[in-house]
Design goal:
The chain is of the alpha/beta class and about 300 residues long. It is built from seven helices and 15 strands. The strands form three sheets. Strands 3, 4, 5, 6, 7, 14 and 15 form a seven-stranded mixed sheet that branches. A six-stranded parallel sheet has the order 10-9-8-11-12-13, with helices on both faces. Strand 8, helix 3 and strand 9 form a beta-alpha-beta unit. Helix 2 packs across helix 3. The protein is globular.
Length: about 300
């Protein structure tokens, strides 16, 4: 099968190559999925799990990509809940070969049914961005109606999901980004926008929840904005500063079939819009990852036309 493989961390995306690899086999509780569309996160090549297994052994050449949408083609021994021929979407394991391939072996529990009226491209854009936003807001941030949310990077793939889900839950949302991101952030539902290059972040005042996708100095300054009992949620590692009278939580997104179902239903009924930045064919994937211009939104590879 065709796959995108990486062998040298120092090379970054320039080291990605389209290669031939053996088709994966389904282990116990696995399914094999024929990948129709795959999502890629720009930071994947910095993750240790891209290069080593859970015992810290080198596993290169490895196949990156973890979001997927496709069709089940085989079931492993003991696998239940899915069937051959079923349309699915979800999140592949961090420490196994990923979804930038024609086929991938995935634990069945990491996948959810993809309704027939949702395009594979849309399906592949949802797992990491949607689940990260859902878990940060509702599982770790315990967001309630009437609270306020500061969503950093609100024009990006995760931030736009944070904004929409928080608004739907009855929160007041302040989005941040670069000046050029203002209109897109407001279009996704933010009620205010903060230009991180020109506005004073501190002028926001107190908020109940900060969703941090940036870290560094922005993360540290954000901690001071948390009201008593509020939460600073980070997906970029532990915060360097903690709220005086609140929680600081950092987490790694996990697949969850029920949450995937909630997310895709919102897409179907128009409550949630996905944020796709660029769509490329499999043959053009390496070039897509190495383009110089900044892309706001999810990069999707159409593995099958």
């Amino acid at each position: 099968m065709k796959a995108i493989a990486v062998t040298a961390q120092a090379a970054g995306t320039a080291g990605m190559k389209l290669v031939e690899r053996p088709e994966p086999q389904a282990a116990i509780n696995d399914v094999v999925v024929q990948v129709h569309a795959s999502g890629f996160v720009g930071t994947e090549l910095t993750w240790p799990s891209t290069w080593t297994d859970r015992l810290d052994r080198d596993r290169t050449p490895s196949i990156p990509g973890h979001d997927l949408a496709g069709v089940v083609t085989a079931l492993g021994y003991g696998t239940t809940g899915l069937s051959v021929g079923q349309r699915v979407f979800g999140l592949a394991d961090w420490y196994r070969d990923g979804t930038l391939a024609e086929y991938v072996a995935v634990e069945a529990r990491n996948l959810a049914p993809l309704p027939g009226d949702v395009d594979f491209t849309v399906g592949a854009s949802l797992p990491i961005s949607g689940l990260t936003a859902w878990q940060g807001l509702f599982v770790h941030g315990r967001l309630q109606a009437g609270q306020s949310v500061l969503a950093h990077g609100a024009a990006g793939a995760v931030g736009s999901m944070v904004t929409q889900l928080a608004r739907e839950a009855g929160a007041y949302v302040i989005g941040t980004g670069r000046a050029a991101d203002r209109q897109k952030t407001l279009d996704f539902g933010a009620q205010e926008f903060v230009d991180l290059e020109n506005d004073a972040l501190e002028d926001v005042g107190g908020v109940d929840l900060v969703f941090d996708v940036i870290g560094g100095d922005i993360g540290k300054r954000s901690a001071a904005l948390i009201r008593a009992g509020g939460t600073l949620v980070s997906i970029v590692g532990p915060s360097e500063a903690r709220p005086d009278d609140g929680l600081a939580v950092d987490f790694v997104v996990e697949s969850d079939r029920a949450q995937l179902g909630e997310i895709v239903q919102r897409v179907r009924d128009g409550r949630l819009r996905t944020n796709i930045g660029t769509v490329s064919t499999f043959d053009d994937a390496v070039a897509a990852f190495n383009q110089k211009k900044r892309i706001n939104g999810k990069t999707i590879i159409r593995v099958r036309p």
